[in-house]
């Protein structure tokens, strides 16, 4: 994964938290994520497809998920419920959408967000891509953005001429 591919996701995360939630994030050191289990108990996941494929996962500490929901909806929550899950999905969608707009060359489509909750949940990324984990600190607690994005090889995509000739014979 190239740095120019990851930077739009970092910028989108910082922007969404800052502008939408009035929450300042401090980025930590980026590292390769080797395990399927995220660090935190709430995750929003979106698949990406097109000239590059992969996935984006926003994993949040419980307190971050609750406070983000409070900031967005103006209502305090003491436990993770449907509103909190919806907020996690929407934040993930906004981050992936903003980053996708900066990566137009890949003509990507996004799946609908999935939200996975619980301490021992797993997130499986495409087998050909080890995700990068970008940790963030916030006044509410910690969160992590995991991104895997693999450009599709030109050799694996048949050109129109090859497809047109496939039926001839």
Biggest β-sheet: count, sense, barrel?
Answer: 8 strands, antiparallel
CATH superfamily: CheC-like
Q: At the first level of CATH, what is the class?
A: Alpha Beta
CA-CA gap between termini: 41 Å
Instruction: Return the CATH topology.
Output: Chemotaxis protein chec
- The overall strand count is 8
Describe this protein with a few key phrases.
alpha+beta, Chemotaxis protein chec, 34% helix, 169 residues, globular, disordered C terminus, 8 strands, eight-stranded antiparallel β-sheet
Characterise the protein shown here.
The radius of gyration is 18 Å and the shape is globular. The model is unreliable at 154-169 (pLDDT under 50). Strands 1, 2, 3, 4, 5, 6, 7 and 8 form an eight-stranded antiparallel β-sheet that branches. By secondary structure, it is of the alpha+beta class. The protein has a single domain, classed as CheC-like (Chemotaxis protein chec, 3-Layer(aba) Sandwich), CATH 3.40.1550.10. Helix 1 crosses helix 3 and helix 2 (62-73) crosses helix 3. It has helices at residues 3-21, 62-73, 82-101, 160-166, and strands at residues 26-27, 31-32, 42-49, 52-60, 109-110, 114-117, 132-138, 141-151.
What are the SSEs and their pairings?
Layout: H1 3-21, E1 26-27, E2 31-32, E3 42-49, E4 52-60, H2 62-73, H3 82-101, E5 109-110, E6 114-117, E7 132-138, E8 141-151, H4 160-166
Antiparallel strand pairs: 1-7, 2-7, 3-4, 3-5, 3-6, 4-8, 7-8
Helix pairs in contact: 1-3, 2-3
């Amino acid at each position: 994964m190239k740095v120019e591919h990851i930077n739009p996701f970092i910028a989108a995360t910082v922007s969404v938290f800052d502008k939408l939630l009035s929450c300042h994030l401090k980025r930590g050191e980026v590292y390769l994520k080797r395990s399927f289990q995220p660090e935190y108990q709430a995750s929003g996941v979106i698949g990406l497809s097109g000239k590059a494929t992969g996935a984006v996962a926003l994993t949040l500490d419980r307190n971050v998920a609750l406070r983000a929901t409070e900031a967005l909806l103006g209502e305090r929550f003491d436990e993770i419920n449907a509103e909190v899950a919806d907020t996690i999905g929407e934040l993930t969608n906004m981050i992936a959408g903003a980053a996708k707009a900066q990566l137009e060359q890949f003509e990507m489509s996004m799946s609908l967000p999935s939200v996975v909750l619980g301490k021992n949940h797993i997130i499986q990324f495409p087998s050909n891509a080890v995700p990068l984990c970008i940790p963030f600190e916030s006044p509410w607690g910690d969160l992590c953005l995991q991104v895997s994005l693999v450009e599709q090889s030109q050799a694996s995509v048949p050109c129109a001429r090859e497809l047109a000739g496939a039926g001839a014979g």
